[in-house]
Amino acid sequence: MRDTEDSIDRSDFVGLPLRVEATSGASADEIVAVTRMSDGRYLVRLSPGFVRGIAAGDVIDYDDASKSASVIERGGNVAVQVFHRDTPEEIIETLKVNAVELGGRVDGELSSLVVLTFPLDTGFPAIESLLSLLPEAGIEWDYGNVFDAQGEPLSWWK
Tell me, which fold does domain 77-143 have in CATH? Predict the structure, then answer.
């Protein structure tokens, strides 16, 4: 992982609005934590909860007009978005503890969402094994930067 939880200095974060389009056609902006780099690009500091295709550690170009990002360099991290409802708090807390023990970190949390970031060398099987321990009822998870909008693998890890 490009950053570790202990090494992240959050004082240099800025919020970059990235447009998120829902399947219904509605859109909203998610404020994504980044650091502006000297070349005008941005380093994504925390994996987003709704924006697809990027993760912490990625270097992106930003288009002000469309509020979109294009990845210039992958940071080697896998983002996981875990959506939950009516899930006991102890299950979510156990997930977060287990994710950190596996080498990941918790990059964000809302009342119904947990955003996790894992270094690629954690491996997809280990990540999926962790997530398979979650109850099926009320929980959905997805990779944030593994598949494109059509569900095809981005294959950046190869």
Answer: Alpha-Beta Plaits (3.30.70)
